[in-house]
Amino acid sequence: MVHCEPMPPPPIPRVRRSPFHWSTAVIGVLVVGAATAVYIREGQDRFLAILFADTWLFIDFAPKMLAGCLIGSFIGLLLPREVVARLVGAESGFLGLLLAAFVGAFLPGGPITIFPVAAAFLGLGAEAGTAIAFVTSWTLLGYNRALVWELPFFGQDFVIWRMVVAIPLPIIAGLLARIAVRVISARRGGEPWI
Predict the structure, then answer these.
(1) Are 167 and 94 members of one domain?
(2) In a shared domain, residues 66 and 154
């Protein structure tokens, strides 16, 4: 008798995306308009000072962005797709939202780390609602921001009450994202858009 190994599950179909999005054109037009306004109002010296300062900011920021994208890519390679899909995928239900919100509240790092991680989760089979709950929880409940920035400036009472009020918001955002995905997918004839 020949022993055959089971076939791996088929990969999740990816939506084809254009490398150029309309939002890029809008941002480009705004940048050129703002640069032109600065040049006309403030003169060439101020324009060049701002241009050089922004260039150095970009040079400083680029390695951090690269590191964040690499972290997201490595997470995509290290975590098993089946586990992510089971824990925070479409079938995870309310428990998936709770898990994503919990992880988001305790994951350290800035937006350069969090957004690539959320994108990696989406690529591994997480659904949009859990990704939104994850990012919203990191934004509203992130412990590192509360300890480093809020507690010294605002005090314990403010931070505790802010956290208590914010606790349900990631779950609500995740539920609203699930509804939005269903509505948009239904309008597109069931075609996925994420």
Answers:
(1) yes
(2) no
**Per the confidence metrics, is the pTM higher than 0.90?**
no
Range of the domain at 154: 80-187
Number of other CB atoms surrounding residue 150 within 10 Å? 16
Closest CA to 37 of 45, 28, 47: 47
Q: Do residues 71 and 84 both lie within one domain?
A: no
- Would you say residue 36 lies in a domain? yes
Distance (Å, whole) CA 175 – CA 188: 20
> What confidence tens digit (pLDDT) does each residue in 91-149 have?
888 999 999 999 999 988 888 888 988 988 888 889 999 999 999 999 999 888 888 88
Distance CA 191, CA 15 (A): 9
Burial of 43 (0-12, 13-18, 19+ CB in 10 A): exposed
CA neighbours closer than 13 Å in the CB half-sphere of residue 59: 6
Residues 47 and 116 reside in one and the same domain: no
CA nearest neighbour of 143 among 155, 130, 159, 132: 159
Q: Are residues 107 and 61 in the same domain?
A: no
